[in-house]
């Protein structure tokens, strides 16, 4: 059996789709699973041993350069790559018009959410089979239920993200046990106050934990450096790709982060993860990995430093 998964972005959404690969491999051990994903997130499905081939796309970049000959060459190359073999199922768990169009280029039965269940109802017109999946489920379970419906099995398997990463070995890492503080977000309303990060770091330092603060963009790394300079035992991480970041997270005693894709990676890796919500609600898209994944706060009601410190120290 050959299956193509289409889940392109964002980072957290890609992580939420990993259990689908685990479920399919558990039900169909000989299945060959390929995955279409945004080029910047391609290292995530590559961490999963059940994923045979990752087919990167660059929809975000292509949109900005539609008049470029290079863009159209890349589009043709994607179409050739995705049509290189016939799939028994092409499963779009994203439910967007862009993902449906990407799925449409593949050879095989295309399946996805029904119009009333898709994020963009028009996407359902591009599938050969559609399924009504409740919208009040967590994103991880919606993906799993859709795959189960399309492949005809019960969605009752234990949750398994299926990924692992060796702890990072780098000369700049603290010599003592460390935690990772994920302070950056692309949305200002998701950020946590800097004074609260400093208070949390002081409490963690007092417990013998150093703090590591990564950042993606130059602005995020500057913020991480500014925060780290106000902490007794902390280091601002150098630029890293997703694979290296996964290793950094894998070696952490605990991870505290805002609502960002890296928090979801930490939870998927089984790290004790506290996700802080300020601009969105955690019920449907929060970290989701059992007792080691804890969501705090909500839209317009971020957790206080005291609440986070109590929760974190109580689990150490």
Would you give an account of this structure?
By secondary structure, this protein is α/β, with parallel strands linked by helices. The chain folds into two domains: 2-151, 3-Layer(aba) Sandwich (Rossmann fold), CATH 3.40.50; 178-315, Rossmann fold (3-Layer(aba) Sandwich), CATH 3.40.50. The chain is built from eleven helices and twelve strands. The strands form two sheets. It has a six-stranded parallel β-sheet, sandwiched between helices. A six-stranded parallel β-sheet has the order 9-8-7-10-11-12, sandwiched between helices. The mean pLDDT is 97.
Instruction: Calculate the mean pLDDT score and round it.
Output: 97
Secondary-structure content class: alpha/beta
Quote the CATH topology of the largest domain. Rossmann fold
The gross shape turns out to be globular
N to C succession of SSEs: EHEHEHHEHEEHEHEHEHEHEEH
Largest sheet: 6 strands, parallel
Strand order of the largest sheet: 3-2-1-4-5-6
Q: Counting H and I runs of at least 4 residues, what is the number of helices? A: 11
Strand content: 15-25%
């Amino acid at each position: 059996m050959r299956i193509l998964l289409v889940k392109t972005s964002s980072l957290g959404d890609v992580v939420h789709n990993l259990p689908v690969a685990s479920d399919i491999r558990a039900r169909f051990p000989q299945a060959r699973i390929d995955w279409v994903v945004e080029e910047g997130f391609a290292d995530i499905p590559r961490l999963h041993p059940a994923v045979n081939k990752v087919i990167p796309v660059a929809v975000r970049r292509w949109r900005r350069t539609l008049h470029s000959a290079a863009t159209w060459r890349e589009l043709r190359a994607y179409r050739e790559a995705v049509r290189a073999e016939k799939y028994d199922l092409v499963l779009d768990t994203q439910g967007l018009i862009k993902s449906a169009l990407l799925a449409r280029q593949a050879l095989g039965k295309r399946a996805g959410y029904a119009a009333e269940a898709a994020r963009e109802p028009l996407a359902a017109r591009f599938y050969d089979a559609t399924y009504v999946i409740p919208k009040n489920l967590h994103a991880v379970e919606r993906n799993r239920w859709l795959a189960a419906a399309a492949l005809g099995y019960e969605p009752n398997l234990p949750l398994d993200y299926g990924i692992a990463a060796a702890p990072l070995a780098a000369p700049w890492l603290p010599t003592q046990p460390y935690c990772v503080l994920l302070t950056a977000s692309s949305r200002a309303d998701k950020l946590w106050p800097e004074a609260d990060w400093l208070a949390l770091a002081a409490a963690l330092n007092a417990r013998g934990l150093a703090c590591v603060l990564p950042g993606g963009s130059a602005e995020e790394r500057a913020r991480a450096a500014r925060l780290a300079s106000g902490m007794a035992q902390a280091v601002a991480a150098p630029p890293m790709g997703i694979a290296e970041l996964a290793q950094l997270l894998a070696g952490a005693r605990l991870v505290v982060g805002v609502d960002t894709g890296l928090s979801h990676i930490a939870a998927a890796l089984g790290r004790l993860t506290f996700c802080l919500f300020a601009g969105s609600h955690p019920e449907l898209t929060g970290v989701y990995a059992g007792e080691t994944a804890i969501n705090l706060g909500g839209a317009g009601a971020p957790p206080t430093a005291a609440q986070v410190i109590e929760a974190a120290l109580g689990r150490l």
